[in-house]
From TrEMBL:
It catalyses: ATP + H2O + phospholipidSide 1 = ADP + phosphate + phospholipidSide 2. It is a multi-pass membrane protein. ATP binds at residues 553-555, 672, 713, 736, 775, 855-857, 985, 991, 1014-1015. This is Phospholipid-transporting ATPase. InterPro entries: ATPase_P-typ_cyto_dom_N (IPR023299), ATPase_P-typ_P_site (IPR018303), ATPase_P-typ_TM_dom_sf (IPR023298), ATPase_P-typ_transduc_dom_A_sf (IPR008250), HAD-like_sf (IPR036412), HAD_sf (IPR023214), P-type_ATPase_IV (IPR006539), P-type_ATPase_N (IPR032631). It is an enzyme of class 7 (translocase).
Length: 1307
């Protein structure tokens, strides 16, 4: 990949190729660097600024000899990454035991998101305000102030003895490296699986029914037959679970039996993964997978650098750098070569889920130094572009961070399923009432006929046969009270299918079929990324049709997350208004090619500004030229991007063949890659990075810079800084960060007006860039004195070796040098909107869905993007809440509510308020937002009521104060009265807090969509979570319920598939209730007519097969394939989606209408054949066969009346189920041992039988038919109107095509 040149050259192994210039600066650059003026000042403060666009950063280190600290003699000091990254989602991070009480939505540190990548985030320090007040008194003002020894605060550190696993695990407290993701074993499968399945209450109900049926007095059905439904459901589920667990066992076995090289008796020998122990030393070769979490001791690169790919861990394909400490790298390599023993002790934290942080110390050869996340490689990563690495195991098996994070997303339950449980309760009440009626009737009948009991064959208080005496059966009558009780229990057994157990399996199969068609929808296939739609959860398909609120991230979700450098403000001058390609620039500037001695070919071309290029090619004199030089040096040096260089030959240049070095930048942040590529486009090419230095090609001259230390970007400081030693021994700190964080730490020289003017010009440029939707950064630098450097080094060493509060102490250390900075300029990066985003948002708004954008970008950028994607329209009145205190936020909220007539929920009932808001908000949306006929609302006019749609814009700093319990209600009232809400500079937990605000105060369905790890908490909090397969890895996808490639697919997902799924599942539930209830009611009327005896005219098998075989297939097919409207109509008229908001497909009113219809149909089903055969000699089993066929025909014709879209398979399912019923009846009636033997043959030969079935169907369905006709004519719904229009349109097209065919034939 690197061609003839090493990927990263160390100082000792630098190439001596004559074609490559030595890594020393040219004299011109070296001389001019001395002209850069230092800025001496030492005061600083830690400011909780706004979020930045920086991503997760790497770390670099160096061996640098510095002067002594205090009384300590001069020694070689190491500089390491200052800030470990924090995890931005719930499942990976938990507060420690003593801090759990501090976590809340509002009182948190402003750990804002990284808009372009996984941002740092720390929830363990919730009360940041209190902590900052404490820290102010502890600011480091003198180098003698030292941090306390961290081990005094660490109660139970994990001790790892290198290459001594026995001593490491002498107490057997550490797990082995064998993993197990399976749930069951051969012994535990049956009891554990059954236990898990019986968590469903319905299963317990049917188990109780089957148990009751085993008792002799209650044996209504055959004992075996009564167990069949429950056993069928349990077996099907157990087979599915067993197959899935067998696959897990097979995967675990393959994983555990893989081999790696382990140091044994001075040599590396293969060893199975499952036998690896904590403390052992491993050797991993190129392209191998890491078997456990290891701390790097050495690599094949002399500088100790290694490249890994974490795709298996977080889905990110970019290479990441990890480092071995210089103290261990050379020593381990020589020890392994000589076969000597490696001695050392690692003190690290206990296993935890945070994959972005590692805190530890190492004692090695008498030296003690810190270890960070940059020194550990996690299980599941792959080694790339590195020949080998050597490391010691610190976490193994189930204690590795990958395994601790393998927990599945929290399960979510459908809203319709919750309503179904409510209706199931009503059915249970009906069941209880019917059983009570039967039991009461039995009691009254027994009291009336108590003197005749001895003569009744069924009861007979005493047996008159010898058989009864021999078997001690002296009586069958248990007394009237017991007979009533037994009658009640027997009735429950007879009416058991009133609670439809088959509904659970039916819903699962229907959802599976719906998911298949969503996955196979070619309109939701992303051709760019090659990703198709994913259904990761099968429980909430129907919830897609009821969404009221969409909470969306901006970067990577609404935008492409492909950054391009567009504008720059350097020393008060604005550049970037006219951009040219590099080749075009060289053609226009004849001297341009001569100035570049060696051409670097970037992966993607960078457009440059001609005026700025001219400035950079001037002599290094003048303030603007020096500022421009430092500006691009900062862009090239202040980052963690890794350059990948490969040499190629090109003959396209006019001056013959030149060696062309192709360079590709690998980084975790697209922002950083864009900035480094831009610096290369302007002649400042970063082409080498090691643990101790970086090499930059400055217009053909090589400049080598020693990296003394790096303070990584974090969401508290909102900036990153790097300490650089130049060849002339000048020490500089280069800083870049968010404007709100950077402008407050600039040098404030009241005597120099130039600085104030420069700051004013830069701020105006920043506002201009933000208004254009560009992402901005501020760049600054300053010189460090020897005293400042020594003080910083001492503090840094103490902070970096702390096992507790390391990040807090490192922020205090960074504040020492990140102050009194000299402003260099600002950058602006463009993140383009994805295709189809404006159209998708407009359709969603017309559908009555509110779209809220929660982003970490600055306010101006978010507003600009909101206008571009048509989220914000010209007729909206913007309400901006930017408060800096609780009182100010309270006043801003109350003023806005008073101005726009928003009533407080405290003055009215909360539930009615939610409903009224939900109804009125969507009526405020204009019918066509694209038209200009809507009257605009002018800000100058004061009106008491809302005359235009409102847009609320609020920042994360305000949310810190507002998301307290006493201000949440005001925010909720104002936000729900607005058509659009934009939350800027918000942290991941604040995103989840906003979603939770709506979920807890309304019954509206919420959907969260995002693409980054910082969106995981929001995705998991919402009712429906959607992940975008974007540029920020797959953590959002892995935590989501559904995943897609583009935001625009959300329009089709909700308006089409969401509508279909909701309509299908809603009808499916009602139909299943009706289907079982009509069967039970028919049995109820029969029992009332047979002296309340709880006997049945139907065979046991007919009762069991009714819901399992006879009527199940049509329900499934219709639930998967039926469509009330075509996808074109649903997309053309988004307001049809409102049917889900109004619960038109399933509500309590429809349930009661269905139950009344069921009552009538059951009466017709029972009494029509009773009157038809009143004078006949038909036996009870023949009547039961008639009822069985009649009820199956009735429910299938009922279903056929409601089908909207008939296809071939629908006909097969509906009419085929009737044929299957007849076939089963023929088989059952052909078995001589059954009491209904040969009945179907006698019935089928009689015309009365067929006429009776027809009469039952007509009489039972006539009221329903009349109701549907009248309702469609006089009170049609939007869906019915659209369907009629769709049918008429289709007929016109069909007739038009026929006329065209006829005219063509006549011609």
């Amino acid at each position: 990949m690197t061609g003839e040149h090493p990927l990263l050259s160390s100082p000792s192994s630098s190439s001596s190729d004559s074609s490559t210039a030595p890594l020393v600066p040219s004299s011109s650059i070296a001389e001019k660097i001395d002209q850069l003026c230092p800025d001496d000042s030492s005061s600083s403060s830690i400011l909780d600024g706004d979020d930045n666009v920086q991503g997760d950063l790497f770390s670099v280190k160096d061996n640098t000899t510095v002067s002594d600290c205090g009384a300590t003699p001069a020694a070689a000091k190491q500089f390491f990454p200052v800030e470990a990254r924090f995890l931005p989602q719930f499942p990976l991070e938990y507060p420690t035991q003593d801090r759990k009480g501090l976590v809340s939505w509002g009182t948190m540190e402003l750990h804002s998101i990284n808009s372009s990548n996984s941002a740092s985030h720390d929830v363990s320090r919730a009360s940041s305000g209190v902590q900052e007040k404490v820290n102010k008194s502890q600011r480091i003002r003198h180098k003698s102030i030292q941090f306390e020894d961290n081990l005094l605060h660490e109660d139970n550190p994990r001790l790892i003895y290198i290459d001594d696993p026995k001593k490491t695990n002498d107490k057997y407290e550490f797990t082995g490296n064998e993993i197990r993701t399976s749930k069951y074993t051969l012994i535990t499968f049956l009891p554990k699986n059954i236990f898990i399945q019986f968590h469903r209450v319905a299963y317990l109900y049917f188990l109780a029914i089957a148990a009751l049926n085993q008792l002799p007095p209650l044996a209504v059905f055959g004992r075996t037959v009564s167990l069949f439904p429950l056993l069928f459901v349990l077996c099907v589920t157990a087979i599915k679970d067993g197959y899935e667990d067998w696959r897990r066992h097979r995967s675990d076995r393959n994983e555990n039996n893989r081999e790696s090289l382990v140091l044994q008796s001075g040599q590396f020998r293969p060893k199975k993964w499952k036998n690896i122990q904590v403390g052992e030393v491993l050797k991993i070769c190129a392209d191998d997978t890491i078997p456990c979490d290891i701390v790097l001791l050495g690599t094949s690169d002399p500088s100790g650098i290694a490249y890994i790919q974490t795709m298996n861990l977080d889905g990110e394909s970019n290479l990441k750098t990890r480092y071995a400490r210089q103290e261990t790298s050379s020593a381990v390599a020589s020890a392994v070569a000589e076969g000597s023993i490696i001695l050392g002790v690692i003190r690290c934290e206990q296993p935890n889920r945070n994959i972005y942080e590692f805190t530890a110390n190492m004692d090695f050869n008498g030296h003690k130094f810190p270890l960070t996340q940059s020194n550990i490689v996690l299980r599941g990563c792959q080694l790339k572009n590195t020949s080998w690495i050597i490391g010691v195991v610190v976490y193994a098996g189930q204690e590795t961070k990958a395994m601790l994070n393998s927990a599945a997303s929290p399960s979510k339950r459908s809203k319709l399923e919750g309503y179904m449980n409510r209706e199931t309760l009503w059915l249970s009440i009906f069941l209880f009432v019917m059983c009570s009626v039967v039991a009461s009737g039995m009691g009254m009948w027994l009291i009336r006929h108590k003197n005749q009991i001895d003569t009744l064959p069924y009861y007979r208080k005493r047996f008159f046969t010898n058989w009864g005496k021999l078997n001690r059966k002296t009586y069958r009558f248990y007394g009237i009270p017991m007979e009533i009780f037994f009658s009640f229990l027997s009735s429950i057994i007879v009416f058991q299918i009133m609670i439809p157990i088959s509904l659970y399996i039916t819903m699962e199969l229907v959802r599976l079929g719906q998911s298949y068609f969503m996955i196979e929808d070619r309109h939701m296939f992303d051709c760019i990324s090659g990703s198709r739609f994913q259904c990761r959860s099968l429980n909430i398909n129907e919830d897609l049709g009821q969404i009221r609120y969409i909470f969306s991230d901006k970067t990577g979700t609404l935008t492409e997350n492909k950054m391009e450098f567009r504008r720059a403000s350097i020393y008060g001058r604005n550049f970037g208004s006219c951009l040219l390609g590099v080749d075009q620039l060289q053609e226009e500037n004849a001297t341009g090619a001569g100035l570049v001695r060696k051409r670097w070919k970037l992966k993607s071309e960078v457009a440059v500004d001609y005026e700025l290029m001219e400035l950079l090619h001037k002599d290094l004199s003048g303030d603007d030229r020096i500022a421009a030089h430092e500006f691009f040096l900062t862009l090239a040096a202040c980052n963690t991007v890794v350059p990948i260089v490969s040499t190629d030959t090109s003959s396209t240049c006019a001056k013959g063949e030149l060696d062309v070095d192709s360079i590709d930048y690998q980084g975790e942040s697209p922002d950083e890659q864009a900035l480094v590529a831009a610096a290369s486009g302007y002649g400042y090419t970063l082409f080498e990075r090691t643990s101790g230095h970086i090499a930059i090609d400055v217009n053909g001259e090589k400049l080598r810079l020693d990296v003394l230390g790096l303070h990584e970007f974090d969401s508290v400081r909102k900036r990153m800084s790097v300490v650089i030693r130049f060849p002339n021994n000048t020490i500089k700190v280069l800083v870049k960060g968010a404007d709100t964080s950077m402008l407050s730490i600039l040098a404030n020289d009241s005597e120099r007006d130039d600085d104030d003017e420069l700051r004013h010009l830069t701020q105006s440029h920043l506002s201009e860039y933000s208004s254009q939707g560009l992402r901005t950064l501020v760049v600054a630098a300053r010189d460090l004195t020897i005293e400042e450097l020594e003080q910083w080094q001492c503090m840094y060493e103490d902070a970096s070796t702390s096992l507790t509060d390391r990040s807090l102490k490192l922020r205090q250390t960074a504040a020492l040098i990140e102050c009194n900075l000299k402003l260099l300029g600002a950058t602006a990066i463009e993140d383009k909107l994805q295709d189809g985003v404006p159209e998708a948002i407009e359709s969603l708004r017309q559908a009555g869905i509110k779209v809220w954008v929660l982003t970490g970008d600055k306010q101006e950028t978010a507003i600009s993007i909101g206008v571009s994607c048509k989220l914000l329209t010209a007729d909206m009145q913007q309400i901006i809440i930017n408060g800096t205190s609780e009182g100010e936020c309270r006043n801003l909220l109350s003023d806005a509510m008073e101005k726009y007539g928003v009533k407080s929920s405290k003055k009215r009932n909360q539930s009615s308020k939610c409903k009224s808001n939900a109804a009125s908000d969507y009526l405020e949306l204009p019918d066509d937002a694209k038209t200009s006929s809507v009257p605009k609302w002018h800000a100058g006019k004061e009106e008491g009521k809302i005359s235009a749609p409102l847009a609320l814009i609020i920042d994360g700093n305000s949310l810190v104060y507002i998301l307290e319990k006493d201000l949440e209600s005001e925010l909720f009232d104002l936000a729900t009265s607005c058509s659009v809400v934009l939350c800027c500079r918000v942290a991941p937990l604040q995103k989840a807090g906003i979603v939770d605000l709506i979920k807890t105060r309304t019954d509206d369905m919420t959907l969260a969509i995002g693409d980054g790890a910082n969106d995981v908490s929001m995705i998991q909090m919402a009712d429906v979570g959607v992940g975008i397969c974007g540029q920020e890895g797959r953590q959002a996808v892995m935590a989501s319920d559904f995943a897609m490639g583009q935001f625009r697919f959300l329009k089709r997902l909700l308006l089409v598939h969401g509508h279909w799924n909701y309509q299908r599942i809603g009808y499916l539930i009602l139909y299943n209730f009706y289907r079982n209830a009509v069967f039970v009611m028919m049995l109820f009327w029969y029992i009332l007519s047979t002296a309340f005896s709880t006997t049945s005219a139907l065979t046991d098998w007919s009762s069991v097969f009714y819901s399992v075989i006879y009527t199940s297939l049509p329900t499934i097919i219709v639930g998967v394939l039926d469509k009330n409207l075509s996808h074109r109509t649903l997309l053309q008229y988004p307001k049809l989606y409102g049917a889900g908001h109004r619960h038109e497909a399933y509500n309590l009113h429809l349930f009661w209408i269905t139950m009344l219809d069921t009552l009538w149909q059951s009466l017709a089903l029972f009494y029509v054949p009773l009157f038809t055969y009143k004078e006949s000699t038909m036996d009870i089993w023949s009547m039961g066969s008639l009822w069985t066929i009649a009820v199956v025909v009735l429910v299938n014709v009922h279903l056929a009346m409601d089908i909207h879209r008939w296809v071939f398979i629908t006909h097969i399912a509906v009419w085929g189920s009737i044929i299957i019923t007849y076939a089963c009846m023929v088989i059952l009636d052909s078995i001589p041992v059954f009491p209904n033997y040969w009945t179907i043959y006698h019935l089928a030969s009689s015309p009365t039988y067929w006429i009776t079935i027809l009469l039952i169907t007509v009489v039972a369905l006539l009221p329903r038919f009349v109701y549907k006709v009248v309702h469609h004519i006089f009170w049609p719904s939007d869906i019915q109107i659209a369907r009629e229009a769709e049918i008429l349109t289709g007929q016109h097209k069909h007739l038009g095509s026929k006329q065209d065919e006829g005219s063509s034939e006549t011609r």
